[in-house]
Specification:
Layout: H1 10-24, H2 36-46, H3 51-64, H4 68-73, H5 76-83, H6 89-105, H7 114-118, H8 125-136, H9 145-154, H10 164-174, H11 183-196, H12 215-219, E1 235-245, E2 251-255, E3 266-267, E4 270-272, H13 279-291, E5 295-307, E6 311-322, E7 332-335, H14 337-340, H15 347-360
Parallel strand pairs: 1-6
Antiparallel strand pairs: 1-4, 2-3, 2-7, 5-6
């Protein structure tokens, strides 16, 4: 696939875009300087997460781990707790592993070589391009969905942006746009344009600083681009979770396994409810089989829906009563709520925990 740029006045496009960026860019905490560590953390947090959501997390993360060495030396539990609520916890684990690699192998200095930086755990082409261009002024494109949307419209690209070969074509083409400019400024200007003006729906073409360069606007098809194959509808699972307390007032929790979705995070006992069975009977059998506890389900307390990219959990939370105090299997753990709060929970189970704390005051 070849992307045609012959029609475009690249120097004029660069000038219009960068001038607009310098006059309109948002004051964001990770733009205070070009510290590679700070830039790297921000880029990992911003993947699949909105800027407004990231800002308070980023500020707190930087207070807890102000340097790469501080993050490398931190316990994983503390790192995950600081990440709690951002989701996609593999990002945090990969970042933690990668900064340890930098601390051990590069004396704590983030490598400016693409080969070395891209070899670190969890660093894909976009992260490599963003960090190397923003922190080190390397002529590296930073191509994500946001950037492909902007340039699909500017260059009238009708190829499916979800295909790897389309992304590759954008990476090759955008290298041309990094000549004669500061890469950090240009790449962030494109990101900012996509966030503020060239939005997924109802792009603000009348306010766009590069509207005169945009072929999609010229053709009146800006709202039809980019082309992206529709994802399959996420699978919906009916789930049941249980709040069960012992005679000491402690609640039953468990930690997920080492691998898979939400690995090593904490949660309330829960499971999928098979079709044709009631949540109550499934939960009672589950508690006895998996935890060695005989309990009676009393009533539903709460409903929580959690949407992953590929999956929806519809969770009904039940209150249960312990019928007799028995030895707990190793899978679970009795915790007071103030102890549970120190652990990291997925968003769905944070909601359950916060509601239980509110109820019990």
């Amino acid at each position: 696939m070849h992307i045609d740029v012959n029609h475009l006045d690249i120097p004029g496009f660069q000038q219009n875009l960068i001038q607009w960026y310098n006059e309109n860019k948002r004051d964001l905490p990770w733009r205070e300087n070009q510290d590679p560590y700070r830039v790297w953390v921000s880029e990992v947090m911003l993947q699949q997460t909105k800027v407004e959501t990231v800002i308070p997390y980023y500020k707190r993360f930087m207070e807890l781990f102000p340097t790469l060495h501080a993050l490398a030396a931190a316990d994983e539990d503390k790192v995950l707790k600081a990440w709690e609520g951002l989701g996609y916890y593999s990002r945090a684990r990969n970042l933690h592993t990668a900064v340890k690699e930098v601390a051990a192998g590069y004396g704590g200095k983030v490598p400016s070589s693409k080969k070395e930086f891209a070899a670190l755990k969890g660093v894909g082409p976009y992260t490599a391009g963003a960090v190397l261009s923003i922190a080190f002024e390397k002529r590296e494109p930073a191509v994500d969905g946001n950037v492909m949307r902007v340039f699909s419209r500017i260059l009238l690209v009708t190829d499916d942006i979800s295909k790897p070969k389309t992304r590759k074509s954008f990476e090759q083409t955008l290298t041309l746009f990094l000549e004669g400019v500061q890469p950090s400024e240009f790449n962030q200007a494109v990101m900012e344009l996509g966030a503020l003006i060239c939005t997924p729906r109802s792009p603000g073409c009348l306010l766009c600083p590069v509207q005169m360069h945009c072929r999609a606007r010229e053709e009146g098809v800006q709202e039809n681009l980019p082309v992206k194959a529709k994802k399959k509808a996420p699978a919906v699972k009916k789930m049941a979770a249980v709040i069960l307390k012992n005679n000491n007032g402690q609640t039953l929790f468990h930690q997920r396994g080492e691998t898979g979705l939400l690995a090593r995070l904490w949660e309330y006992p829960n499971l999928e409810v098979p079709a044709g069975q009631t949540s109550e009977e499934v939960l009672e059998a589950f508690l006895e089989h998996d935890y060695g506890l005989r309990a009676s389900i009393i009533k539903p307390l709460q409903h929580v829906e959690h949407i992953f990219s590929h999956l929806v959990w519809n969770i009904t939370v039940y209150e249960a009563r312990l019928l007799e105090e028995e030895q707990l299997h190793s899978k679970g753990e009795w915790l007071y709520l103030h102890e549970a709060e120190r652990h990291t929970f997925p968003v769905s189970h944070q909601k359950i925990l916060h509601r239980q704390i509110q109820r019990e005051g």
